Amino acid sequence: MAILFDQKTQVFTLQTRNSAYQMKVVDHGVLLHLYYGKKIDSCDMSYLIQWTDRGFCSNPYEMQMDRTFSLDHLPQEYPCYGIGDFRADCIKLVNPDGSCVVDYRYRSHRIEKGKYALAGLPALYADEDKAETLIVSMADASSGMELELYYGIIEEADVITRAAKIVNPTSKTVYIKKAMSFCLDFLQGQMDWIHFYGKHTMERQPERARLLHGRQASGSLRGTSSHQQNPFVILCDPESNEDHGDCYGASLVYSGSFLAEVELDQFDQARLVMGISPEEFNWQLGPGESFQTPEAVLIYSGEGFTGLSHRFHQAAQEHVIRGKWKDERRPVLLNNWEATYFDFDGDKLLKIAEGAKELGVEMLVLDDGWFGKRDSDYSGLGDWYVNEEKLGGTLKELVEKINALGLRFGLWVEPEMICEDSDLYRAHPDWALRVPGRPGNIGRSQFVLDYSRPEVVDHIRDMIFKILDEVNVEYVKWDFNRSISNYYSYALPAERQGEIGHRFVLGLYRFLEELHTRYPHILLEGCCGGGGRFDLGMLYYSPQIWCSDDTDAVERLKIQYGTSFGYPISAVGSHVSASPNHQTFRRTPFETRATVAMAGTFGYELDVNCLTKRDQAKVKRQIKEYKNEQDLICKGDYYRLSSPFEGHAAAWSFVSKDKRECLFCAVSTKLQSNPGAVYVKLKGLDPKLCYKMGERVYSGAALMYGGVLLPIPGEEYQSWRYHLKAVGK
């Protein structure tokens, strides 16, 4: 059993393979959090709580003379607003009388086999015999409002998931102002906080800081999980590193605006809450209605960041990503965007396809510009019909020619957007998110469609599906190229405008689920101007995500490094692009661009016909090498060996589950005269095995404890790839 309940002590103990999570029902139904960390038995951990009278910490009325019981310092499972706990809270309701007080207390619970699912929202899944669910029912005695706390335990994956459902069984309407997915309290708050910040073309940069007294937060108000912050955070011991120390990771399975807030309180306790951003959120909950929060994934590692990452990678690969492409090899593709931008026709695309096929590419992806009046990014979005004049025929005819070459075909779409210069906008201007009487603001010359309206989603869906029904499309790149602002829906009354942001995400998920169900053969790649929606919510529908619009290999070292902390390599869209790079104008060696792109779903973002014969030969060899290493890269254990932010080289490796094979990669990041030696210690090998690397054989112990001496680079940003294979038994 992964979920234990002691009737006598009223203690719940949730156990995974390496961790335990404990909570307890105490006086008057208050649900306290007791412990999360290395695996323990069901011993009641409430002995760790210090019960004392603390000044300016009020007490629940039922406690009367007991001043040691205050919600302002006790660790809780789901703290409520307005009842004496002044720290970060999880829920705030506006009652019919205008008050904002809600006080949820334990009422009952049930334990079920299997992992719960969430209607309309992505959530981790597992075989029924591999998971258990705990549902704790709470109620507010004064108002009659109810709450269900969901806990999913996937024992072997070391995963605990959290979610909450707010239920209104009363005859009156309430408004939800804040509904977080979970709270995690720590009695000892001397911890570091790591979040992953960035911007367009430089996403998920790790930043670490000691907790300060008060609140620190990361989040997004952009309608997406965003380039600027990611819904994945880490709390850890100050001395934690890649290989040692306690680490706690939290990842929100959600693709919209979010908040991750951590507070170090007056008594040096830490609290982390995470969920939908409460800014502009105001959900009307009528009689008999309920509201479901997104799911969050919690994982503990006592083996540092590497152990934490491996667990998150496993959770995403085995319990988030679904369908045919969960295990099937992804095709090596060529995307025409940086090869042509909008300047293409059918003949040019066919020539690119012919050249790509000769070099071993398996799929051609047609990016922006194939539909409507779309020769620039100023018009056309929303008009999802093929521009046959531009292509010189139908899309079906073009795809048949590409298929005849032996190539698969993929297509770019941006279904959530609309341009003013489009037939759709002229017919339905009210379908754009735009406040009446205000000019609004545009991003990339486009507005955002109101996906909170089912009829808008259905219209766009039908246009896209008509094309997918007629044309042999085996890959779709789903893009989203601006942040959301000017929230206003013509379909909702004034008092419900605060629901648009979340309803938009629900509309998106409905569309994606229908796409997944109707076209199970299609490989969907998520994209939001690159990595602006890189989250577990999108991975539930798209098994890979375009990691960044920055294709510069040197910049990608940092972007992919940060991404690897919470997301698997198999999900990282990464391509070889031209040099000088189109974003940074940096020149990098062709082999280095391939080395970096191989740490992801490999492909090309250039016109191979413009390459020299020498570089074309390299493409052939790179594709062959990647296909030989693909299973190791996508299914092996990934190790960060050195940071691209420090030292003279960035290095990483992939190790097979049986530890008999390893792909070791490194890129020189700093040239200097008369350089010192650069050593990289490998990880994850078997110290008792011997490995052949090049023409020599080394023991696993030597490679891990002594390391590898990198050659002196002969050019800027030189890279190395070594395949190690165990010899003997």
Description:
By secondary structure, this protein is of the alpha+beta class. It has 13 helices and 38 strands. The strands form 7 sheets. Strands 6, 7, 8, 9, 11, 12, 14, 15, 19 and 20 form a 10-stranded antiparallel β-sheet that branches. An 8-stranded parallel β-barrel has the order 21-22-23-26-27-28-29-30, surrounded by 5 helices. Strands 5, 10, 13, 16, 17 and 18 form a 6-stranded antiparallel β-sheet that branches. Strand 32 and strand 33 (661-668) form a beta hairpin. The two termini are 37 Å apart. The model has no long low-confidence stretch (mean pLDDT 97).
Oligomer: single chain
Strand content: 25-35%
Largest sheet composition: 10 strands, antiparallel
* N-to-C span: 37 Å
How many strands in all?
Answer: 38
Question: What characteristics describe this protein?
Answer:
single chain, 729 residues, alpha+beta, 8-stranded parallel β-barrel, 38 strands, 19% helix, 30% strand, globular
